[in-house]
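Data card: per-record layout.
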Amino acid sequence: MNRRTFLSSSALAAAPAYLKGAGRPNQYIELRFYDLHNGTANQAGRLREFFENEHLPMTKRLGLGPVGYFQVYLGPDMPKLAVISALDSPADIEKRRAAQRADKEWMQAVQEVAAANPVYDRVESWLLRTFDKMPRLEVPELVEGKAPRFFDMRIYESENCHKAALKVEMFNSGEIELFRETGLNPLFFGEAMFASKMPQLTYMVYYDDWEAREAAWAKFVAHPEWKKMRSDPRWAGTVSNITNTHFNPLPFSPIR
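The structure for this 256-residue chain is written out next.
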């Protein structure tokens, strides 16, 4: 390795995650929401156990990471668990499915859990395409002994596809950078390809705790650059409804 190549590689290794992703193809984010009910069947506990003991090891064997496992802390239709994973292309969905079907340990685990009482009521799957200014899911650095972070998932619905595209443009034109500056740490931003409440975009941000969340949003809404952006008539009326759901990562989740 020559000196120029070494310096370039060293600079990239030291760069923030969002700079490392620059110039790389846009990922696709799969969101899977598991609707549960409280009762003697203990769906939430059994599904968490299945994720930890079977699903996560399967993803490691097949190299399907990064994957995050979450429970809804505050939001609609509780109790609910969610699994978040990144794909390099929509074609990866079929490749992963084929790899899972070829994995004997996984297929045995699926058959065993299917033979018992259902571990969830229904499952809903969404596919999002990441934004150009944040093309990769950015996994937070794990710090030994640090409490799990607090996550927000926000859905921005629009009246039509044109306005939805304008809101994506607004994020790509400076709003993502403003999020980072004010402490709204992004996990991903995605435009819905297949989802409910379309047209819409969905993003997820995280904080060290609830107090950090309150401080970050207060700083964001008071920022002069945000006031300038929101007053731009080009982006007026791009969001017709917002759904905000709070998530806690499960203790074994690689994203937490």
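Known properties of this structure: The helical segments are 3-14, 17-20, 43-62, 91-102, 104-115, 161-182, 210-222, 224-230. The chain has one domain: 26-249.

See the next section for split statistics.
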